[in-house]
Amino acid sequence: MVDNTRIALVHDFLIQSGGAEQVLRAIHDIFPDAPVFTLVYDKKRMPEEFHSWDIRPVGWSQRLPRMHRWYKYYMPLYPTMIEQMDLREFDLVISSSHLVAKGILTRSETLHLCYCYTPMRQAWEMYFDYKHGYTRSGFKPKRELFKFFYPIALNYVRMWDRLAAERVDHFIACSRTTSRRIKKFYNRDSTIIYPPVKTDKFKVLPENEIGDYFVCLSRMVPYKRVDLAVLAFRELDMPLYIAGDGPQLSQLKKIAGPKTKFLGNIDEKEKIDLFAGCRALIFPGREDFGIVPVEAQASGRPVIAYGAGGATETVIDGKTGLFFSEQTPENLVEAVERFDRSSFDPADAVNSARRFDEAVFKRKIEDWIWSRFEDFKQELKEG
Predict the structure, then answer these.
(1) Is residue 74 located within the same domain as residue 221?
(2) Domain with 320 in it: what CATH number?
(3) In the chain, which end has fewer C-beta atoms inside a 10 angstrom radius, N or C?
(4) Domain shared by 190 and 213, yes or no
């Protein structure tokens, strides 16, 4: 550690608590005095531990009409918003980014390290999905006006995003999947450090206490593909508990079978109990990493996942779970039926999850940050 180093953290939004915020918590634990700059901060929607942090949102973005709710529609303004952050006083800036946090402006004497969850999905990997409104998922398409203006706005955002990636001195990727995307879209190399999971807080139940239900925990947004789980379990006529909330909830309820139960948002204790007692986690989306499958494995439970993206790095096919190869209800049905004929050792799942424990993350990222900072300071001395 370097004494008297002025450090700042930057995060896209603080309006919900998810996987990215879990990473931010761990980094903030390492640098507890560092202020956190963000585009929007909604104190009411963030856990209490965030309330004591030094959080500095962009002033005028907080005053935009219904910004906390309509933030997605202000995307064309994100580049201007992030460039309003004044970070001149800091020696080291660590951005936590899946959108635009990496686009901050810093002095040449400031080291900028970016923990990247993904290059902006809407502009790159999932551009055509967003453009066409996920009609293939069975949900209503976007309004025609949106489909007309979306490509125009995203053309500008995509060019800015590519240039903004050049402002980062070093990238950290949350997975091999993200590392490949950073290379493809930004032509930048990255170091892979997996996100942290507090594996010790989960509990493992004996086999005779496992319930008869499967579980799916997710935000109800189309790219999570919760619709696959709903349709598959309607066909299977088996119990499925779905935890989470989001804009697709009402549509999902309409297509659900009688044995699918929607639990809404649940707290940590409820999540621990839900995972511990389930037969398996259903993970139908393609994620950059995916903390939920690690949490399920920490509970000794196997995972039935779409075999792409981050799940291929956290789930061991045939040992801690099963993959299905196509995002169709039929393919998921086949995987669940195959799961019923398989057996899994809870100890294998727990051991797999420990690879991603928070202590492992903190040790790796702190060592990496200070190593890069020392190299950077030496380069400055040498001119």
Answers:
(1) no
(2) 3.40.50.2000
(3) C
(4) no
Over residues 49-73, the mean pLDDT reads 78
**Distance from C-alpha of 327 to C-alpha of 27, rounded to nearest angstrom:** 34
Tokens (6 digits) for 183 = 């290379």
Please tell me the predicted confidence (pLDDT) of residue 15.
87
Of 92-106, 120-134, 302-316, minimum mean pLDDT range: 120-134
| Structural domain span for residue 52 | 7-196+357-382
Query: Strand pairing of 281-283 and 92-97?
Result: unpaired
Q: Residue 361: pLDDT above 80?
A: yes
Give the Cβ contact number of residue 170 at 10 Å: 18
Residue 310 lies in a domain: yes
For 30-60, how does the pLDDT look when each residue is reduced to its tens digit (9 = 90+)? 999 999 999 989 888 898 999 999 999 986 6
End-to-end Cα separation, the chain, in angstroms = 23
Tens digits of residue pLDDT in 127-159: 666 666 544 444 444 555 556 666 777 788 889
* Same domain as 213, residue 154: no
Query: Are 123 and 53 contained in the same domain?
Result: yes
Whether 302 and 322 have beta carbons less than 8 Å apart is answered as yes
In Å, how far from its chain's centre is CA 67?
Answer: 21
User: Does residue 1 fall inside a structural domain?
Assistant: no
Is 71 found in the same domain as 18?
yes
Token readout for 382 is: 């040498």
